Amino acid sequence: MAVIKPFKGIRPPQDLVEEVASRPYDVLNSEEAREEAAGNEKSLYHIIKPEIDFPVGTDEHEECVYEKAAENFRKFQEKGWLIQDENENYYIYAQTMNGKTQYGLVVGAYVPDYMNGVIKKHELTRRDKEEDRMKHVRVNNANIEPVFFAYPDQDELDVIVKKYTAQTPVYDFIAPGDGFGHTFWIVDQREDIDAVTQAFAAMPALYIADGHHRSAAAALVGAEKAAQNPNHKGDEEYNYFMAVCFPASQLTIIDYNRVVKDLNGLTAAEFLQALEKNFVVEEKGTEIYKPVALHNFALYLEGKWYSLTARPGTYNDNDPIGVLDVTISSNLILDEILGIKDLRSDKRIDFVGGICGLGELSKRVDSGEMKVALALYPVSMKQLMDIADTGNIMPPKTTWFEPKLRSGLVIHTLD
Fold first, then answer.
1. Does residue 177 have a pLDDT over 80?
2. Which helix H or strand E contains 310, and what residues bound it?
């Protein structure tokens, strides 16, 4: 049973939303944020990437940088660039990419649900990244950016969403850079708010799609506050953190590909011969080749594309982890042939989100930066949910969700 609640969102006025809204903190570096925020004092980057207000080269983990985030958050509210709603609401956030729209409900997710496994994970988190976001939540006493959840489709929620999305939205804009549409409505009728709460209460689980570190940080800070409050009752606002929840059927996971700097001492011919042990290798020529099905891979090497199809017996379709193409490629190519044991730490490998296109893979190899590229067939939402339901963890760099949530449309305070 998933517990959620409405909250008094802190939002930009309608005429300022495009100036305030930003990409998430973790999809761009400090230099890129500095460039995107140039000349715009209202950009949310001043809160989520506050190092841009310091000289170039300032460590983003300095205490003064976190303090600047809180200072800027107060400033935004004082100047009226962010204003808190008077009543507790749910919100609907729609994203449109390539003509396809997905509709998410913005809710307060329950910290104990994260701790007891009702909110299910599929990735490991790193403590240093958790601590960074925990400091950010603590100093602002708020979830400035949302996390991205999926839920099992439910007709009752679809009806409520359709009711509100038939109305004029509060925000409706095309984001610069990515060209994706972002649209936003407020669910403010009491009977609909209650219906949303009850619909989630009937769900056995929610699933983290994107934002494992933000989810962990938000939940851990909430738990900290509970432990520190001698009068803790369980209904305080810090018991909840902000999530945008989408029906699983509306979400698309795109490919997350690999590029490697060398062939581990092998020649190209020796590498291709080594692949024959576990894969059917077919040369495809110079035109981009895209994997066509599960267990089929695309390889780019020395100006040519190859199709690799895993041979029967090299994978286990009854194992939720063993069936994944990221597992097959990690074990049989990256580890066994190229000697890459740890995807999280090995400096010889890099990862390229499918949003960049397969042309980015050949570009990085042709430039001489990388030696070989490997493209994978994307994971399905069913695979992700099966893995989370069985308590398993996906290998690193398995899923890439697009479009990313825009930050700054609404903020949740822990007061």
1. no
2. strand 304-310
